[in-house]
Design goal:
182 residues, alpha+beta, 2 domains, 6-stranded mixed sheet, two-stranded antiparallel ribbon, elongated, binds zinc ion
């Protein structure tokens, strides 16, 4: 775990009285850079965490909003995708760390603080839609890189027959192979 994140994204629950507590975190470029495999390289998000504390359970409600920069699936240029979502995490206080389910974990009570960076990271990535493309403008036209759109159009006309031909060639080569093998 990144040491800086451990300091920056932690919820110190020890000594807090029961009831509700609020914490605020900024998720920026340096946050994503600290995760080597992060699909998102740049972002500017705010996370507000409302924590309900009871003797054995912390209920954390995350409200995350802002934007991330990701490559467009269609034209490959990066664009800003707005995100705004909520997640709930149930954190039981116990003897040792354990993941009970997707949103329920047990942490060591004696640690006194809970580092949430890994959860913030996962939540933001899970919030990304399957299809990531530039939004359309007010006239319903894509705002993608116009040069790439033009190229894609040209390719979609010319690539298909070639692809079919290639596939056929590979098929017949395979068929020959099996014929000879017998
Ligand atoms: Zn695009």
């Amino acid at each position: 775990m990144c040491v800086r994140n451990a300091e920056r994204y932690k919820i110190p629950f020890k000594g807090l009285k029961e009831g509700e507590h609020t914490f605020d975190f900024e998720i920026d470029r340096s946050f994503f850079e600290s995760f080597e495999r992060s699909e998102i390289k740049e972002g500017d998000l705010h996370a507000r965490v409302n924590m309900q504390k009871t003797p054995r359970l912390l209920t954390l409600e995350f409200h995350i909003s802002g934007s991330v920069r990701i490559p467009c699936d269609r034209c490959l240029d990066e664009f800003e995708m707005p995100l705004s979502f909520r997640e709930t995490l149930f954190v039981k206080l116990g003897e040792r760390f354990e993941e009970e389910s997707a949103n329920t974990i047990i942490i060591r009570e004696e640690d006194g603080a809970f580092v949430i960076s890994q959860y913030l990271y996962e939540f933001v990535h899970l919030a990304l839609p399957m299809r990531r493309v530039h939004p359309d403008d007010e006239n319903g036209h894509p705002t993608c890189n116009p040069f790439m759109l033009k190229k894609l159009k040209e390719l979609s006309v010319s690539v298909d027959p070639k692809e079919t031909e290639m596939t056929d060639q590979r098929w017949s080569a395979l068929k020959d192979y099996f014929k000879n093998a017998n």
